Amino acid sequence: MSKVKILSVFFFLFLCVSALSAQEFLFESYGEKVEAHLLLPYDLFIFPKDADHVNYQLSIEVRNSRKKQVVSQEISLSIPNRVWLDRCAVPVLQSWDLDYGSHTVNVFLKNKQLGDKKSFSKTFNKGTNDTEVGLAYIIAEKEGFEYIPQELDLSFPDKLTLKQRFSLNIGQIILEADSQRSLFFNPESPFELELTEFFEQDRIDQMLVYLDESNIRYKVEPLLYNAWFSFSRNYSLKDQMQQIRYIATQAQWKTLSKVPKDMYEEAIESFWQAKDPSPGTLKNETREFFYKRVLEADQRFSIHKRMPGWKSDRGRIFIKFGEPDQITAEAFPIGRNPNIVWHYYMLNRSFRFEDDRGFGQYRLKNKEEEYEDF
Questions:
Q1: Among 313, 372, 308, which Cα is nearest to 339's?
Q2: Cα–Cα distance between 57 and 77 in angstroms, integer?
């Protein structure tokens, strides 16, 4: 009996140039068709005061490598003003007939009532091979409105549906939901399962989808909303380059520091691709882990708008080294500045921060410790 080979597949790929931005644009290829999934964070939308909903006009154009327009679409979006949509994403699914090669998607979003406008672009390449295993989408529906939820809460939405596409000859799909394991033999693509009808529990803490092709098993983690959907809306390309400097080697930063501004996006993507622990998938666990630390640093160490947490000394050390093993502090020492010391026992390092200006901006005093053997 042949040994089963397990492959982790999160977005089995053909890849857009920038993986994480103010919105996710994910692409899958099946024959001549390109399935484009635009995921818009709910906090992207602005509502008039006391309005029940807001109307947006979504314009999409696709141009090929010769700059010729090959797709032009106008889509009307009616977005309800609901608290339960906070920290969710609004999905827009489109299917296009495209030739092989590089393409650029230009998206324009206009608020019909307030007039605010947003635009963004993504570049992707349609290869000659089909997407073998696509992303497992979780689509929730409530009050007739579809959204990408943050968690698998089966009790709140009217419907919660798993949608999975693939081009391989899949013999069976195994769905693991916490301790429950369900098998589906000879599934057809697209595979859809209404979770609120299939499961009796109110919520699922962890779900994995396995697709078996002969002796190869593909593991897919369903897509849920994550805070880094909005990362590039909160942090400019310049900011992201400076954040990368925290963890780049001297040789890497010597190269990155010479990159012109119009090449920042490509340079950032190349940097993270080189650190991707699962090449061939759009999910980059190292990148997501780093972004989580940046977001956490901003929440914990921001002093004012001119000094976001990630730029502070404590934020930088937190992003580079994580949570300290122990923290000691003197808030009101006699004859000395207020100070905080972070101890990292596994690294054999301690970092001393002092509030020497009296404004709560603790500055690192032993910087030589930061760069020793790093």
A1: 313
A2: 6
Torsion of the alpha carbons at 173, 177, 180 and 185, rounded to the nearest 10: -10
Q: In the predicted model, is pLDDT for residue 282 greater than 60?
A: no
- The dihedral region occupied by 373, where left means phi > 0, alpha psi between -120 and 50, and beta the remainder, is left
Burial (CB < 10 A; 0-12, 13-18, 19+), residue 137, is buried
Token couple for 185: 């033999």
Q: Report phi then psi at 354, rounded to 5.
A: -125, 140
* Predicted confidence (pLDDT) per residue in 55-99, tens digit: 999 999 999 999 999 999 999 999 999 999 988 999 999 999 999
> Where are the CATH 2.60.40.10 domain residues in the chain?
5-220
- Report residue 216 CA to chain centroid gap: 27
Give tens-digit pLDDT for 198-221. Answer: 999 999 998 999 999 988 999 888
What is 5-220's CATH number, 3.60.15.10, 3.40.50.720, 3.30.420.340, 2.60.40.10? 2.60.40.10
Which residue type is seen at 71?
Answer: V
